[in-house]
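Troubleshooting log. The previous structure file for this entry was overwritten by mistake, so regenerating from the original sequence record. Sequence copied from the archived sheet and checked twice against the printout by T.R.
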Amino acid sequence: MKKILFVEDDDALGYALEFSLIDEGYNIIRTCTIEDAKNCFNNDEFKLILLDVNLPDGNGYDFCKYIREKSSVPIIFLTALDDEVNVVMGLEIGANDYLTKPFGVRELLARIKVQLRSNKSNEIKDKLISKDITIDISTSHVYKKNELLNLTALEYKLLILFMNNPNKIIKRESILESITGEDDTFFDENTLSVYIKRLREKIEDDYKNPKYIITKRGVGYKWDIEVGSE
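Regenerated output below.
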């Protein structure tokens, strides 16, 4: 069930739209303030955000900017501010669509479906997911259980290589060639072992008993967990 964050302080409109969206099979989380919306956004994953502009503790434009610093989730503004300046502003700061009140439920549903279809193809390209490890390719951020990991550039290259080749034994020489490329920096198998150890320390629950990066002695390494995309 696709989860949508719905930020609207007008109770009459909010309840009516929430009911209609639930009836269409969406999982709706509704908030009435930016503060509550931020808490929901930071602690959950949403497929789409419906956002009012005028809210009790601020405006939706600022929240839109906040979201865009962290995510490419589709955003549709729902607002009574229908002049061209506001519409252009909303789109320029990162909104995907802008629907002015009053509007029909069927039109809203159609626009939601368009954004979800578009975002689905982007997510496949932009995210790699393996159990509790997620790589956001668009930002180069790596998360374990939704916590941001601090990886070096070489650790990130190693992780990308492994997650793009799940359940395959990768020879040490192939790994060295892949992560160094045309770089003349000295990088031997002993150095590789050090980087593998450091990466394990960051992504494994117990790096001494790894479940992600498995050593195949005398050959190389293997990413031992399935990888997919949302």
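The first strand starts at residue 3 and ends at 7. Archived copy saved in two places this time.
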